[in-house]
Amino acid sequence: MPFFFRISALLLFLFLYPSLALADVVVLKNGDTLSGKIVAVTEDAITLEHEILGILTLPKSKLKSDEDTIGVLQPEKKATPGVFGTNFLAGWNRRVALGVKGEEGNDVSLNLNGALDASYEDKDNRLALSGAYFYESTGP
Fold first, then answer.
1. Which phi and psi angles does 86 have, rounded to 5°?
2. pLDDT (tens digit per residue) in 9-22
3. S-S: 102 plus which of 4, 64, 73, 112, CB 3.0-4.6 Å?
4. Are 66 and 49 in a shared domain?
5. Is residue 54 part of a domain?
């Protein structure tokens, strides 16, 4: 049973870790950047909630952007790289799900499941792929 717990904890960490990188970015005139969540935008200031510094109200006159839109202050969306640094499925939006369940006691059972969803869209085409696999084993 500890084996299944370790595998589950590892998978949970690997899939939740990338979500820590999601944040809005504000670029100041001196080139410094602040990342956090933009909570309010007024005519002359932006309010940013920073993880360590707390709530910051930044005058737009101190920001590098010439426009008054938040979109300029957010990082540009980069092209999606391929799987594991290859060109396989480059430019596709991908989602992978894995699950492991094991039980020991009077009976021993092992359940595995996996799923892959991928989608691609450009001005001419829209494609979507989806697949799933389920495995179950029981024994004495």
1. -95, 180
2. 666 665 555 544 55
3. 4
4. yes
5. yes
With respect to residue 100, please indicate whether it lies within any of the assigned structural domains: yes
Q: Is residue 38 part of a domain?
A: yes
| Range 96-105 contact pairs with CB under 8 angstroms and sequence separation of 24 or more | 98/11, 100/4, 100/7, 100/8, 100/11, 101/4, 102/1, 102/3, 102/4, 103/1, 104/1
Q: What DSSP designation does 63 have?
A: B
- Rounded to whole angstroms, the Cα distance separating 24 from 41 reads 13
Give the Cα separation of 123 and 102 in Å (integer): 45
Whether residue 132 is found in the same domain as residue 86: yes
**Containing structural domain, residue 105:** 79-139
Assess whether pLDDT exceeds 80 at residue 1. no
Domain tally, the chain: 2
Sign of the CA dihedral with 118 first, then 24, 38, and 61 last? negative
Domain-located, residue 2: no
The sign one gets for the Cα dihedral 55, 60, 61, 64 is positive
Distance between CA atoms of residues 42 and 38, nearest Å: 11
Compute CA distances 133 → 11, 82, 88, 97, whole Å: 17, 22, 21, 10
In angstroms, the CA 133 to CA 98 distance is 10
- Global pTM reads 0.40
